Amino acid sequence: MTQEPFEQPTGRRSGAELEPLCQGDLDGLCGVYSVVNAVRTLCPEASDTCCEQLFRQLMKRLSKDGRTPAAVVCNGLGTRRLRSLVECASKFATTRLDVQLHARKLRKPKRRNMSTSKLWRILSEELSAGRVAILRLGGRENHWTLAVRITERQIRLLDSSGRQVLQRSRCTIGDDATRVILHVADITVVERLGTR
Questions:
Q1: Distance between CA atoms of residues 33 and 179, nearest Å
Q2: pTM
Q3: How far is CA 159 from the centre of its chain?
Q4: CA 93 to CA 18: how far, in whole Å?
Q5: Which of 5, 94, 115, 165 has the fewest CB atoms within 10 Å, measured from its CB?
Q6: How far apart are CA 111 and CA 119, in angstroms?
Q7: CB proximity list for 2: less than 8 A, separation 6 or greater
Q8: pLDDT tier at 102 (50, 70, 90 boundaries)?
Q9: How many CA atoms lie within 13 A of 151 on its CB side?
Q10: Residue 135 parent element (H or E)
């Protein structure tokens, strides 16, 4: 007896072609993860348990700021709330790890003088000094990620959705739906000042 071949329903891929969904595909928690990853990068003494506690603390902070966890999961974070979380994480690092973290907006020339090349140079200076930068991406995707190193051609990331690099040739600071937009005004630089 011959068997009929299994047919996939129309519009669906076979199991071999199906890629799993990852964090960030359906939720807006990338901003929270970028803050936790900044602390993990700058504070290697932060254990997994400590990072879990930080995550919970950040979610509580969002509730105090008037955001429910469900709203964050569905809609993500804006820059003001992300910076509020960075402030909360800095206090957490001081209290729990006895480490001082300092966060600030990216130092930059006036907007009219900014270009992707100038931004790359500024980020090179910032990241070479042992700092990290939380980036807001736009264009092809809306996403928060953490930049940890930079070369002439790419930015190395510690990213909650698994992305490892941003290629310079695919980035812009202008409006371009086909490229990755780096939102200059939303970049937050975080550095470790030492123990208190």
A1: 23
A2: 0.85
A3: 6
A4: 40
A5: 5
A6: 11
A7: none
A8: very high
A9: 8
A10: strand 132-139
Alpha helices, DSSP H, located in the chain: 30-42, 48-64, 69-75, 79-97, 116-128
* Average pLDDT for the chain: 86
The residue with tokens 């509730």 is 63
Measured distance CA(142)–CA(112) in Å, rounded: 24
Residue written as token pair 């695919």: 170
SS3 131: coil
Backbone angles phi, psi at 105, to 5 degrees: -70, 155
Look up residue 135 and give its two tokens.
Answer: 């980036």
Separation of alpha carbons 134 and 37, rounded Å: 9
Token couple for 156:
């190395």
Nearest alpha-carbon partner for 54 in 15, 97, 22, 12: 97
Closest CA to 141 of 19, 17, 22, 20: 22
Distance of CA 169 to the CA centre of its chain: 20
In 3D space, the residue among 142, 109, 101, 145 whose CA is nearest the CA of residue 125 turns out to be: 109
Determine the residue type at 24: G
Give the span between the Cα atoms of 77 and 74, in whole angstroms: 10
